[in-house]
Each structure stands twice: as structure tokens, then as C-alpha cells.
Amino acid sequence: MNLESLKGRLPDYARDLKLNLSSLAGETLLTTQQRAGTFIVSALAARNAEVTRAMLGEFAPLLSAEALNAAQAAAAIMAMNNIYYRFTHLASAPEYRTLPARLRMNVMAKPGVEKVDFELWSLAVSAINGCGMCVDSHEKVLREHGIGVEQIQAAVRIAATVHAIACVLDGLETARLPVAEAA
Q1: What pLDDT is recorded for position 183?
Q2: Domain of 94?
Q3: Is 134 a catalytic residue?
Q4: Looking at 21, 63, 120, 134, which residue is catalytic?
């Protein structure tokens, strides 16, 4: 599956998502690796098999084996971290914020790609998962490494669009509504 077939699966009411997907696929503010990895981690975080297959089909060929592995690792580690750190942030008892996490996060120290790319992917997943503490942390590191607000925004726009497409397809499947005919 590729982006065109995925767009063909979206109903007319999701036309804006189709348009956003098309424009973001050619986003020039990010490097090819950053853009491709952001699409992949966003699909993994959105947890829709059809969207994940489409993003992997379209963007995995643009990544080295190491970069693809790093993107998958970012999605995996942030799935854990976003839950843990969101809990420590939301819990009323302040003691949780002072306890060590005691969760292995070795991949963050040696992700297999440049630190900024892994941080950007981690930020995208954190935005999808709604972890404000992780969003702040990754955004700060990115800014310290010279990544500008427009680049950060581009990654989050990709995450938002991919997640929205997954939601639409999940909603159609759940309701068993007819989907748009492929154009």
C-alpha cells in the first residue's frame, strides 16, 4: 500500500486530510530521513495497521536499515515513556516525580541515527500520545541542537495528519461504514 491508495480509502469528509497528506509528503523543512522517519513513527504511534503499512511502503525505502530501526525504536520507547511520564506529571502526589523511572531506555543514548532525528521522532510520538512532559523535553533538546520552530512544527503537523487519518479509518471500521471508492 502507498499514499495514493491510502488517500483513496478516505471518505469525502476527510478531504482536508488527503490534501495535508499530499503536501506534507513533500515537506522541505525536514531532511528526507527526518520526514520519512516522522511519517513512520507517527503511523506506529497511531496504531492503525492500514496506515502503518502505507507509511512503511511509502517511506521505509527512503531510510537506511539503521534509520528504519531507529524510527521503530523511537516509537517503541516513547510508547512506554509517554505513559510513565504522563502519569508522573498528572498524579497529584509529587513523590512520583522524584522517583527514578527504573525503566531501560538505552536506545535513547545510542539510537543509531543522529540525535536530532531521534529526538524529532520522539517528539512526534509524544505529541500523538499527549505527554506534555515528553513534548517539552524533546522540544528543548531539539532547540538546543539548532532545530527551528518551523521544523518542529512540520514534524508535529505530520504526526497530527497521520493520526487523524488513522482515526478516520478506525472510525469507519468500527461503524462498518462504506469507504470512498479509490479515485
Answers
A1: 44
A2: 3-175
A3: yes
A4: 134
